[in-house]
User: What shape does this take?
Amino acid sequence: MTDGSPRGEHRDELPEELDVSGYVGQYTFPDIARRRLPGVIYLVIAALSFVLWATHRGPGHVLVNDGFLWVAVGLAVVALYQFAAAWPLKVGETDALVAATQRMGFPVGHASAQVGWSGLRSRPVWRILLYSAEDPPRRRGVVLVDGVSAEVVFDFVEDNPEDWSSLKRG
Assistant: This one.
């Protein structure tokens, strides 16, 4: 993007979703239990495929073959996984940050949180990176908070190895 200058210099700008002036409130992460809806759809299609296979197979029905049975089995397996992985996200970002802050043992300054998934059944886990409140921060830590039970699953604290001396305010 050019700024209209005679040399046509390139200028960086933030994407719209990162523009603070457009902030309208706290973002709420969608509940992972929404996976149940596609699971129901897969089960309905699996049942219909199985019924078509069971009632319309044979020499007189050339459009229905054993592929309908395989589709029914495959979709039923995917639907069962959708139900098994549909954990309710009971712990919000703020609650996860509170649990992580309590675990750290030092006053927390900057922190960021993101939700991830753990294990075969994709259990939601908040991953939280925290820095101590000093300027520049002397310690940092990572905390994993279970998104269903709010238990701290893992924590790690270390002295901040980053060199912030070039960023000193003059």
User: Anything to note?
Assistant: The chain has two domains: 32-84, 89-167. Residues 106 and 112 are 16 Å apart (CA to CA). The first helix runs from residue 36 to 56.
